[in-house]
Amino acid sequence: MSSTVHAALTEAQFERARRHLMRRDPRLGTLIKKVGRCRLPDSRADSPFASLVRAILSQQLAGKAPDTIEGRVVALVGGRDGLSPAALLAVDPTALRAAGVSRPKISYLRDLAERVQDGRLDLDHLEHQSDEVVVTAITEVKGLGRWSAEMFLMFRLNRPDVFPVADLGIVKGVQKLLGMKRRPKPRTMLRAAEVWRPYRSVAAWYLWRIHE
Questions:
Q1: How far is CA 181 from the centre of its chain?
Q2: What are all long-range contacts of 12-17, with beta carbons under 8 Å and residues at least 24 apart?
């Protein structure tokens, strides 16, 4: 992950990244041809705050559960346009529990909302900071670790060269792409990903889709 500030990739740059990866790695190239367009740019539609709310709600859940619970939370604040720190703090915790949000996650959501509301976490400012500065800022929020920060970098800020080695989907993707019998260690994954620089975020997005 870079200490240099990289702007979000444009749609044209995503296409350039796709072609670059296809040239550099034929195995990944086959997957890219099968999947088609990288849809990472589509994720920037959410506000930075909404992206982190979703990151919290998605923790330890799979399938349609995160979308269902997020939909209920959004309804409690009057719709997606109403999802703000103040609106979230105004929701009764019992209503959040009824919506399917666990008690720990309620405390995480409230800590996030309080930090954004009082200015300790300036989400707009993060757009212009290095990857590592963003990780440091995000991980100060209760319940948000490095993985959550990396997802924010990839999906909301569209940073080009993030590679979340702790993500199980990425681990399985590398394992299948390289034809390995055992799940690779982070060190092995980072070595394999060197050929994908400076577009490891794009490579990671395709690795998530290797089992589809």
A1: 28
A2: 13/160, 14/38, 14/40, 14/41, 14/202, 17/160, 17/199, 17/202
CB 49 within 8 A of CB 55: no
DSSP character at residue 183: P
- Cβ–Cβ < 8 Å for 189, 165: yes
* Nearby residues of 9 by Cβ (< 8 Å), 6 or more positions away: 17, 40, 41, 158, 160, 202
The candidate with the shortest Cα–Cα distance to 149, out of 133, 160, 168, is: 133
> Residues 28-74: pLDDT tens digits?
999 999 999 999 888 777 889 999 998 899 887 767 888 899 999 99
Amino acid in position 107: S
Q: How far apart are CA 139 and CA 163, in angstroms?
A: 17
pTM: predicted TM-score of the whole model, two decimal places: 0.87
CA-derived radius of gyration, the chain: 18
Q: Can you give the length of the chain in residues? A: 212
Q: Which two tokens stand for residue 141?
A: 């929020």
Helix (H) or strand (E) holding 189: helix 186-193
Distance (Å, rounded) from C-alpha 55 to C-alpha 72? 15
**Cα gap 64→61, rounded to integer Å:** 9
At a CB cut-off of 8 Å and minimum separation 6, what does 100 contact?
65, 68, 69, 72
Catalytic site includes residue 167: yes
Residue 180: predicted pLDDT:
95
Exactly one of 42, 67, 122, 167 is catalytic; name it: 167
